[in-house]
Amino acid sequence: MSRIEAIISDFGGVLTSPLLDSFVAFQESSGISFEELGKAMAAVGAQNGVNPLYELETGRMTEAAFLHSVAAQLTEQLGRACTLSGFGERYFAHLHPNVVLIDYMRELRGRGYRMAICTNNVREWEERWRAKLPVDEIFDVVVDSAFVGSRKPERRIYELTLEQLGVSADAAVFIDDIELNCDAARDLGIRSVWFRSNDQAIAEIESVLAA
Fold it and tell me: Nearest-5° angle of CA 53, CA 59, CA 65?
């Protein structure tokens, strides 16, 4: 087994507070439940033959088109006028840096590891998410789904990240808060840590690095 040379981290939910916090805040401010939002996205997907979230996160749909189509479906479902205007601003207002993990990533860079972020994100949100942490100070590589046309757990986004890092799959460790994304990375031979808490993730990463 190769020595670990590179660390690949997710952004939202690992280097930030839990994404659920932002969705709860949106639900409280809009009166639109997770269930209704999910039903609306599923209905839009059924109408168009493709999941709108996947299209958004791979840069094939604009944020404006996504919000318009989902808001129109919500209006029909709920029988009242619904708008998702300002969703991005409200979402990021409740997304905060995970200082403990960011400091740990900085430490890992200082220990000589190549560092990457691999994120499912939205093209129009790039400036907002990058403002949450010192990306260029810590990370050598950023692979953003909205700019590369592939999203986790698709194989290609992991391959692109490894290519840009210049390492083989067995020389990298991947951290993500979604278990499915970790499973997909393992299928490629990347050792993976499913993030649930800071202490748990750091302990598991250190165990991998010491192996």
Answer: 60
What is the bridge-based pairing of β-strands 141-144 and 172-176? unpaired
9: how many CB neighbours lie within 10 A of its CB? 26
162-167 long-range contacts, CB within 8 A, separation 24+:
162/6, 162/190, 164/116, 165/5, 165/6, 165/8, 165/114, 165/116, 165/140, 165/141, 166/114, 167/5, 167/6, 167/114
- Dihedral sign, CA of 10, 14, 15, 20? positive
Residue position matching structure tokens 């619904």: 82
Q: Nearest 5 degrees, angle CA 203-CA 205-CA 209? A: 115
pLDDT tens-digit series, residues 10-58: 999 999 999 988 888 888 888 888 889 999 999 999 999 999 999 999 9
Distance CA(27)–CA(57), nearest Å, equals: 21
Query: Token pair of 28, please?
Result: 């409280």
Using DSSP's 3-state secondary structure scheme, residue 122 falls into coil
